[in-house]
Specification:
Blueprint (H helix, E strand, L loop, with lengths): L1 E3 L10 E5 L9 H4 L9 E6 L2 E8 L4 E4 L14 E11 L12 H4 L22 E2 L2 H9 L5 H11 L1 H18 L4 H11 L3 H10 L15 E4 L9 H5 L4 E4 L1 H8 L3 E3 L5 E3 L5 H6 L13 H14 L4
Parallel strand pairs: 1-3
Antiparallel strand pairs: 1-7, 2-6, 3-4, 4-6, 5-6, 8-9, 10-11
Length: 310
């Protein structure tokens, strides 16, 4: 869970933005924390010593120029940064929470390094802090009755809604981004497994690794590292970030029920019922042809962040 500032934008809901580096190239843990956000993470918006909004991250970080609404703020920041789409819900003023009021509960739970609060309860000036679930739970418990928190928890449980919202918001942003029309069209088509992305994936992966089907009318171009979790547009269009799969296996791979291990062997989640595996005649001992080196980083991401492990 993270603490950050709330920003409104042309994309409904809000977002977080931080530079990648300072102008002198200096890096910060508080900027690096942006790249650690996953859809479903809770974001606590802290301003003027109080929590004033709670949000749910609906994307991972992706490259984005400094927003125009920042104006002259952050003169020492580099112009290229990380952006995370967040579905923020502002709390009514009566529901604002001042962490200093329950400092004794928070101090034992604060991080050993990069804590958002000092021993005297004063906050540190930085952008995005990572805190433990226990730390965040103390804060959330103080506003337990708010409608906004209940909404956030409901949304957090529904990972399919999070993905849809995240993809929609990112697509809206890309439509407004300073891209040439050709690239913009290619990126939006790639979300649907179409266009330049599909053509490239078909060249790299001409057949479904599970069924051997080569008929393009029966195959889906599926991203290995999901489209909305790519940090750069190059990753979204990279043909090595894709597999051609028949629809059933595309759905299983996309939802994290199956993945591939380092030796190109099939790995099946314990969350996939074995009777369903039998019905679709899945070979749990499948070992496919070796993947190309350019595919391995995407497969590692899929194993670490998409696959439903035990």
């Amino acid at each position: 869970m993270n603490q950050g500032q709330t920003y409104r934008s042309e994309v409904p809901g809000g977002y977080l933005w931080s530079p990648k580096t300072n102008n002198n190239g200096g890096r910060s843990q508080y900027y690096l924390n942006m790249t650690m956000v996953d859809p479903g993470d809770v974001v606590l918006s802290y301003a003027d010593s109080q929590i004033r909004a709670v949000g749910i991250a609906v994307s991972t970080a992706y490259e984005s120029p400094k927003p125009q609404e920042f104006g002259t703020a952050g003169a020492v920041w580099a112009d290229l940064g990380w952006r995370v789409e967040v579905d923020f819900q502002e709390l009514p003023k009566s529901g604002w929470v001042r962490p200093k009021d329950f400092l004794s509960e928070l101090l034992p739970l604060r991080p050993e390094k990069y804590s958002p609060i000092q021993e005297n309860g004063n906050s540190l000036t930085a952008y995005l802090f990572e805190v433990s679930e226990a730390f965040a739970h103390v804060i959330l418990s103080k506003i337990e009755s708010s409608v906004e928190i209940e909404f956030a928890r409901t949304l957090q449980r529904n990972d399919l809604d999070l993905r849809r919202i995240g993809e929609d918001k990112l697509e809206q942003f890309l439509k407004l981004a300073p891209l040439d029309e050709t690239e913009r069209t290619a990126l939006i088509a790639a979300r649907r497994g179409q266009g330049r992305f599909r053509e490239g994936v078909s060249y790299v992966e001409p057949a479904c690794r599970f069924t051997g089907v080569t008929n393009p009318q029966l195959l889906v171009a599926s991203h290995i590292q999901p489209w909305h979790r790519c940090q750069t547009n190059a990753e979204r269009l990279d043909p090595f970030n894709g597999l051609m799969l028949t629809p059933t296996y595309d759905r299983l791979f996309d939802r994290g029920f199956i993945t591939f291990g380092p030796q190109s062997q099939l790995v099946v989640s314990q969350h996939l019922p074995r009777e369903d595996m039998q019905k679709i005649r899945m070979d749990s001992n499948l070992v496919t042809d070796a993947f190309r080196p350019s595919q391995l980083k995407y497969l590692e991401y899929h194993r670490d962040h998409v696959f439903k492990a035990a």
